[in-house]
User: Which sequence fits this backbone?
């Protein structure tokens, strides 16, 4: 009987190829073969070093059951399927459908296409479309990354992967990506996001919904609402380009930048961030909020620039054009501004106009010093003018070339020190709050002390020229210093600041 089967195997292997159908599975080699024909079904059992071929596809295994009638084969033990010398699939068992060229591999399955190695328990592979499919979880390894997911679809020609459920990407540099669904190209190393995704590197974490990320270059282009986080900042926008190695980000649409240490928030329509230099630019509805324990400082301008000191992580802020500033105890406007968060100093440029409670201050430039976000002192330079209104609605006025203005804890005027071309008009009020007259003084250097927004005492450093005028003799030219302009209607409020950032943008990218 053994000799009979041996002769049958020899005869089968020697059949001319032209007698076989073009798509028919062809037996190239086997150590032994058992054949059985039942009705119209022809089954062959091939044992030992089995090797079959169909076109450019070959199948090797330890044992196979070939159904020549249906052109199907069941393969067992050390299964290896090779397609056109480009894709190699190994596993413990396989079922191959010759007519449709479909392979179903089970066991310790591996697919190698010279780009990646895919490992799973079950894999379906279509020789026609070159599509590999798994539903029981798989791990994919390439030169730079290790990927895994519950389900996956991989085209071995285009190198496009579609991952679904519990997607994880780990690169050799320690970076990690996780999502519920992901498209990935194993050749370009680009991941395309189609679901909420988290990208974690040594330097930062990015959360996004749409866009792409190159796992090799670490360059991202996010087209959905995205957020980049580090220990120092959080950057969010509707679209975000981010280069992780250089830490350069370009943001558009509802941009928000948060400096976590200084509690400074910058928002606007567009933004640019350079992590290595620590410079952030925001423009279009630009707004800064410096959040304190009890109060928040609001600042808006056409353009805001934030610069981080890499040595001590402190930050400086610069505002350009149409600057508005608001805090509960003071507000103001100017052309440009500089804010040093380390020293809590704000420098106002180009004829700033400021208000503190019932006082108005203006000069060519102003420096404001704060302690615990409370005004401590202001230095006014060039054409300095201070006006304060008292309980009787009188305008106490001080004018000079330079002034040092000191504030009490309630942000009211405490002391004004005038240096150069000093002039003042202040009203005298008795204990019964009756106005008895006004004093008009000219003195190049003098110090004025306030109490409840009224001048309580004045000291002259140089010889003054003073004149007391009773109410009956008051005239307009005596009551107001030259250049007096009470601009209370322009006083900045929080609604004015918020309204500015809601207007249609007219600012172009600088």
Assistant:
């Amino acid at each position: 009987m053994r000799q009979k089967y041996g002769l049958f195997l020899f005869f089968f292997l020697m059949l001319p190829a032209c007698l076989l159908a073009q798509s028919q599975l062809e037996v190239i080699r086997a150590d032994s073969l058992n054949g059985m024909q039942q009705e119209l079904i022809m089954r062959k059992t091939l044992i030992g070093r089995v090797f079959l071929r169909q076109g450019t596809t070959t199948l090797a295994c330890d044992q196979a059951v070939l159904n020549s009638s249906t052109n199907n084969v069941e393969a067992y033990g050390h299964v290896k399927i090779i397609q056109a010398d480009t894709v190699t699939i190994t596993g413990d068992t396989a079922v191959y459908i010759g007519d449709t060229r479909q392979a179903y591999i089970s066991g310790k399955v591996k697919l190698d296409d010279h780009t990646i190695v895919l490992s799973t328990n079950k894999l379906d592979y279509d020789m026609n479309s070159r599509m590999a499919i798994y539903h029981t979880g798989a791990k994919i390894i390439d030169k730079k990354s290790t990927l895994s997911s519950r389900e996956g679809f991989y085209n071995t020609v285009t190198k496009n992967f579609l991952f679904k459920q519990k997607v994880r990407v780990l690169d050799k540099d320690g970076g990690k990506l996780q999502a519920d669904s992901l498209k990935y190209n194993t050749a370009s190393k680009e991941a395309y996001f189609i679901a909420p995704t988290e990208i974690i590197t040594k330097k930062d974490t990015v959360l996004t919904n749409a866009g792409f990320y190159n796992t090799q270059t670490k360059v991202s282009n996010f087209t959905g609402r995205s957020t980049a986080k580090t220990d120092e900042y959080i950057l969010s926008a509707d679209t975000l380009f981010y280069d992780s190695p250089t830490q350069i980000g370009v943001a558009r649409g509802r941009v928000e930048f948060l400096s976590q240490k200084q509690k400074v928030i910058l928002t606007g329509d567009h933004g640019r961030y350079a992590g290595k230099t620590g410079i952030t630019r925001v423009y279009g509805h630009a707004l800064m909020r410096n959040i304190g324990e009890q109060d928040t400082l609001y600042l808006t301008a056409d353009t805001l620039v934030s610069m981080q000191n890499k040595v001590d992580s402190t930050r400086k802020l610069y505002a350009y054009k149409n600057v508005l500033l608001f805090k509960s105890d003071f507000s103001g406007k100017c052309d440009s501004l500089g804010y040093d968060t380390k020293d809590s100093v704000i420098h106002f440029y180009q004829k700033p106009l400021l208000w503190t409670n019932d006082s108005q201050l203006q000069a060519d430039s102003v420096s404001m010093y704060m302690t615990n976000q409370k005004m401590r002192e202001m230095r006014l330079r060039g054409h300095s003018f201070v006006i304060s209104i008292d309980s009787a609605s009188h305008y106490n006025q001080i004018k000079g070339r330079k002034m040092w203005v000191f504030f009490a804890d309630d942000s009211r005027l405490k002391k004004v020190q005038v240096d150069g071309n000093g002039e003042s008009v202040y009203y005298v009020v008795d204990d019964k709050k009756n106005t008895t007259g006004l004093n008009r003084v000219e003195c190049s250097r003098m110090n004025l002390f306030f109490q409840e927004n009224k001048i309580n005492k004045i000291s002259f450093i140089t010889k003054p020229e003073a004149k007391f005028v009773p109410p009956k003799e008051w005239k307009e030219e005596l009551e107001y210093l030259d250049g007096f302009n009470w601009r209370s209607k322009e006083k900045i409020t929080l609604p004015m600041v918020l309204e500015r950032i809601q207007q249609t943008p007219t600012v172009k990218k600088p």
